[in-house]
UniProtKB/TrEMBL annotation:
<dbReference type="Pfam" id="PF07238">
    <property type="entry name" value="PilZ"/>
</dbReference>
<feature type="coiled-coil region">
    <location>
        <begin position="86"/>
        <end position="113"/>
    </location>
</feature>
<protein>
    <submittedName>
        <fullName>PilZ domain-containing protein</fullName>
    </submittedName>
</protein>
<keyword id="KW-0175">Coiled coil</keyword>
<dbReference type="InterPro" id="IPR009875">
    <property type="entry name" value="PilZ_domain"/>
</dbReference>
<dbReference type="GO" id="GO:0035438">
    <property type="term" value="F:cyclic-di-GMP binding"/>
</dbReference>
<feature type="domain" description="PilZ">
    <location>
        <begin position="3"/>
        <end position="87"/>
    </location>
</feature>
């Protein structure tokens, strides 16, 4: 197999969490190898994954916006997105704040405070 990676990946076994959509759904995963540009991760099942995910690795204290570039069974290969510019961060913050307000409203309704 042709190795097209830009940098060498370190073999690891880290716990990870993949944010799989904009609604905040997450799935636990195991990081099998990682580099500055990508990673291989393994899920219990890879069904229902979108092409874009955000991988959080607690051991590295980082979240990597990522694109799935290949799939084999329950294992996927990720390419980390290039640096996120300020406009993308601003948009993500706006969406996050909107979601937070919606959740706070729902909590008030459930608690009978509205």
């Amino acid at each position: 197999m042709d190795d097209r990676r830009k940098s060498r990946r370190d073999k690891v076994v880290y716990g990870g969490v993949a944010a799989i959509n904009e609604r905040g759904s997450t799935r636990d995963c195991v990081v099998r190898n990682i580099s500055d540009n990508g990673a291989t991760i393994e899920f219990g099942t890879a069904a229902g994954l979108s092409d874009q995910i955000a991988l959080t690795v607690a051991k590295k204290a980082r979240t990597y916006p990522s694109k799935i570039v290949w799939r084999r069974g329950n294992t996927v290969g990720l390419a980390f997105s290039e640096t996120t510019d300020a406009s993308q961060l601003s948009e993500r913050l706006r969406k996050s704040e909107k979601t937070k307000r919606e959740l706070q409203r729902k909590i008030k309704v459930l608690l009978g405070e509205s």
